[in-house]
Write a structure and sequence with these properties.
Layout: H1 5-29, E1 32-38, E2 52-55, E3 60-65, E4 68-73, E5 79-83, E6 89-95, E7 100-105, E8 110-115, E9 121-126, E10 131-137, E11 142-147, E12 152-157, E13 162-168, E14 173-178, E15 183-188, E16 193-198, E17 203-209, E18 216-222, E19 227-232, E20 237-242, E21 248-253, E22 258-264, E23 269-274, E24 278-286, E25 289-297, E26 304-308, E27 313-318, E28 321-322, E29 336-337, E30 343-348
Length: about 350
């Protein structure tokens, strides 16, 4: 049978497209559980966990775990040490040049400063009630905590630990990301907005709706293409947003309870983890289009996540859960974590 030039071109294009999609699917399908690491109960006996932070240069993973932060080896999963003496830890940011780390303690309303080598607490700064996410901004060389109930951000000089400013955000902040050029983005969960903050002037420059998604918590960034990935909880969708003008370019459905997004620029993959026990994976086909690439089944409650760009490993943590009986105040209560069951799940491709 003779083929025209046009037919041959179409055939070759289809073959290349098929092989590309097959490779992408293979990468997704090969994600498997590498290791499960169990840890003991927190000092106060309460099982609570929040943000996961990965420092690829030091090969460390920081796990928020109630009254402490656990420091884990990114390659072996073994426990390297703990930062203790906290009340309710949330986020962790590290500044390797200063050999310092920073933890938000929501119960104390403080930023706790620790030494990266000894893991000893060396100071603290006053933040505000429910200090939650935290980020180091390399452009301004300042650390920003985002205080949920207080609707504010506290800015400190990491070299001195001194508070140098407070920003009124006009809503309840969740995840924050820095673009490295002097702009910090944060989700306002109660407003269904993303805000853009000039990190040098400490002024909110823009407020953008994330519709059709809503109640956003997780946030990630593609710095090269100037794109934000915003995961909403009500409605449950992940939105692709232009980081310069706030335009929502696309929105795709996800499962309930999204609490972390990470972006792998090397493979152009976005990961979104949810309370329902799924990691949704999307491929950034272009700066204007995300494509669903698959899902990884984890465990219920494994909603926070970290990513190691060196190994492409994904870290999520959770606990065993038990059902609660409904009452007048909570007719549909969520399951609660069982003390002494906290564990880390490590997935690799």
């Amino acid at each position: 049978m003779r083929y025209s030039f046009k037919a041959r071109v179409i055939t070759i294009f289809a073959a290349v497209l098929f092989s590309t999609l097959a490779l992408s699917q293979a990468n997704v399908q090969e994600y498997h559980l590498l290791k499960k690491v169990a840890f003991g109960v927190t000092p106060d006996g309460r099982e609570y966990f929040d943000y996961i932070s990965v420092d690829p240069s030091s090969r460390r993973v920081y796990l928020s775990h109630g009254a402490e932060v656990l420091v884990v080896d990114a390659d072996t999963g073994s426990l390297l040490g703990k930062v203790s003496g906290l009340e309710l830890s949330h986020g962790v940011a590290v500044v390797p040049d200063l050999r310092r780390g920073f933890i938000t303690d929501g119960a104390k309303g403080k930023i706790v400063i620790f030494d990266l080598k000894s893991l000893k607490v060396i100071g603290e700064a006053n933040a505000a009630k429910d200090a939650d996410s935290i980020v180091y901004d390399p452009a301004s060389k300042h650390v920003f905590s985002f205080n949920d109930d207080s609707h504010s951000s506290t800015v400190i000089d990491p070299a001195t630990g001194r508070v140098i400013g407070t920003i009124d955000l006009g809503g309840a902040p969740e995840f924050a990301v820095a673009d490295g050029r002097g702009m910090i983005y944060n989700n306002l969960e109660d407003k269904s907005e993303v805000i853009a903050i000039d990190s040098r002037t400490r002024v909110v420059k823009s407020r953008w709706s994330i519709s059709p998604a809503g109640a956003p918590a997780p946030l990630a960034i593609d710095r090269e293409h100037r794109r934000l990935f915003v995961a909403g909880r009500n409605p449950q969708m992940v939105a692709l947003m232009d980081a310069d003008n706030g335009k929502v370019l696309q929105a795709l459905p996800i499962s309930a309870g999204a609490d972390a997004c990470v972006f792998d620029p090397a493979r152009q993959l976005l990961f979104v983890s949810t309370r329902e026990g799924w990691i949704h994976i999307f491929h950034e086909d272009s700066p204007t289009h995300l494509a669903e690439s698959g899902k990884v089944k984890t465990e219920y409650g494994a909603k926070t996540m970290g990513f190691d760009p060196r190994t492409s490993r994904i870290f999520v943590d959770t606990a065993e859960f038990k059902e609660q009986l409904p009452d007048a105040e909570h007719p549909h209560p969520r399951p609660i974590p069982v003390p002494n069951t906290f564990h880390l799940l490590i997935y690799e491709p």
